[in-house]
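Annex B.
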Amino acid sequence: MLCVVPAAFSQIYFTRRALVLISPFLSLFLCPNQNPLFPLPPSLSIFFPNLPFTNHVPSSSSHAAAATATSTSAIFKGLGEDMIYGTCFTASKSLSFRALLLRKSLNFQVKFSSQCFPTQIRMDGNLNCNVEGTRKESRGALIVLEGLDRSGKSSQCSRLVSYLEGQGISAELWRFPDRTTNVGQMISAYLSNTSQLDDHTIHLLFSANRWEKRSLMETKLKTGTTLIVDRYSYSGVAFSASKGLDIEWCKAPEIGLLAPDLVAYLDISPQKAAERGGYGDERYEKLDFQKKVAESYKTLHDVSWKVVDACQPIEDVEKQLQEIALDCVTECQKGKPLSPLLWSQ
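Thymidylate kinase: predicted structure tokens.
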């Protein structure tokens, strides 16, 4: 049986074999009151003298007999490999139907113009034909940089945004925690040692800080803006687990946040990071604690992560990040689905 699902989609391409299989059924659906075998306008009938029923339209009572008497192969035998063209009209609405079959092409192009466009045509049963629309929406990429404190994340995030913008790609730099929000200001006070909070409480605040930006994040991505994010849920889990909290408990508040399209981990030893300027300014920048964080990252790491040696010269790290980020952006622009299932069970 034939099922056409309307949607805003104007072109469907079929192989020649699929055309042969579905043409009688498609005609019956589109033109129930006309010849189911694609009658041609008189002005074009001279080009296809062998096509059955070219110059007349049988009554509705003869549809079944005509379809039975004339096989699909007989219809297309007269066409050769040149071109077929047909128009049909329904009683309630005008639908323009045009079919074009070219000698050197295996594609059959069908165009519809109306308020409803078919995006899916299925045929079940013995015909074994299943042709679906494959329209995909272009979007921005969610790219996260993770790593120990002083691994160079912030510098590389800024450089990466500048690079992508230079390539004509809409990109923004985001950081977590976002200290501009009310929750973020509480976190900032904690990190600068001006306030004290229970470990469970601060973990939930970090998670809440990401959740309060989730809606805007999704909107940005769906409208084509790539987000380069300095730390994300992985940092929250790694740091809290390093304080002795259960890692699964730490993951739980993050479930449902948007999953990154790319996680780039800037790999550096805690000892090397401690040698960099500015180390020790914030609460967690202590060598012993950073060693624990490094171990927690190893637990969270999976094969999808891209590990970049952060001990390389800055320019080398930058170039490597540019390559993997550009590949990710290109994939998302081609319609890679956005996943809302970070750590889903």
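The first strand starts at residue 2 and ends at 7. Residues 1-38, 51-134 have pLDDT under 50 and may be disordered. Further annotation is deferred to the next reporting cycle.
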